[in-house]
Every structure is written in C-alpha cells, then in structure tokens.
Specification:
4% of the residues lie in helices and 50% in strands. With 199 residues, it is mainly β. The protein folds into two domains: 93 residues, Immunoglobulin-like (Sandwich), CATH 2.60.40; 96 residues, Sandwich (Immunoglobulin-like), CATH 2.60.40.10. The strands form four sheets. It has a five-stranded mixed β-sheet, with no helix packed on it. The protein has a five-stranded mixed β-sheet with strand order 9-16-14-11-12, with no helix packed on it. Strand 4 and strand 5 form a beta hairpin.
Amino acid sequence: MRPITLTLLLLLLLPAALRAQTVTDPVPHPNPISLGWDASPGASGYHPTIDGVTTDVGPQLFTPPKNLTPGAHIASVTAYTGTGESPPSLLFSFLVAQPPACAGGTVVIAVQDWTKVVKAGERGRVLFQLFSDFPIVKTQVRFGDQVIGELPPPVSDLRDSAGMYFSVPRAGVYNLVVYAEDNRGCPGLTTLARPVTVQ
C-alpha cells in the first residue's frame, strides 16, 4: 500500500487565505488509503480530517489504512500540543480508484456549475454531465460520504446532462461531489470536490 502524502510542516506556516486553497491529486489511488504528513516541531499529536470526520492519531504521522468509497475525497491535518492546536493544513483533494471488477467500463462525471454559497435551510444547485459505457442507475450529490440529494432511478442512458438541488440545515464549509453508479454497481469518479459555504 502506498500512502497519499500531505505535507503538514510547511502548510502550517502559510497565511490563512492560502490555507483555504485546495491541492488536488489527479491520480486515482487503490484502496486501502493511508494519509501521511511531515512532522511539525513541538507537536504532541495530530488530528487528520477526511470528508469532515476528524480523528486523533496521537504522535503518528499517518492514518491507519482504510477502504474509502471510490471517487473524490478531501482531507486536512492539524497539529496539537498540550496548550493549543494549529490552523488546518491546505485542503487536499484526492481520488480513490474503482475496484478491479469495474475495469472495462467507466463512468465520468463533469461538474459544470454549482452553488458556492447558500444559506442554511435553503437550496443550492449543481449542474453536471454524465458519460458512461453502461446505463446509470444511481446519481447522488454528496458532502463527503453524506448523501444530500439523489435522482430517482432509472436515472438516464449513457450520455446525459442533469441538475440537482440540495439543502443543508447546518452552517459550515462542505466539499460537494457528484456520485454516479452504473448497472454493474461500479461508481463514477468525480475529478474534484467543489467547496460550498453554508451560512
């Protein structure tokens, strides 16, 4: 297993405006996934966050290997001491590859536009195109692994443009992905998680 590496040390020294940017790794990685990072001097431990879920790995410089849903994910890391915690690193967007059984056919999702800022409880919208070698049977809008909108099946044939609405009750910054699945149970790979701010 080859871990995806986050460089934490340099990122902690960046201004907040730069830390808000996203670094994207365009190469799909096979499961299981382990995220690693450089040590931060004086840190007693680290809090990695993947798709909005934060864990404490203590002084380790990596997360335990874990199988993630194929498609786009996003991560960051903070370092902590006994007296405080650092700002988060740059957001890091990465892809998890489809399983070997899905070779020989692909689902490609091209996000064209999406609501960047929305008030809590109001609806946002995402527009996208699907390209598939097999019929699409499931299409969802997700914040990480949380489903926030879904088109009822059957969704479409092999080529289609679609729009979906989504609503989120709580304020925060989320990472929107579009997930699609063909009739073999093979998921589509979105190329980038899109940031959405819910006020």
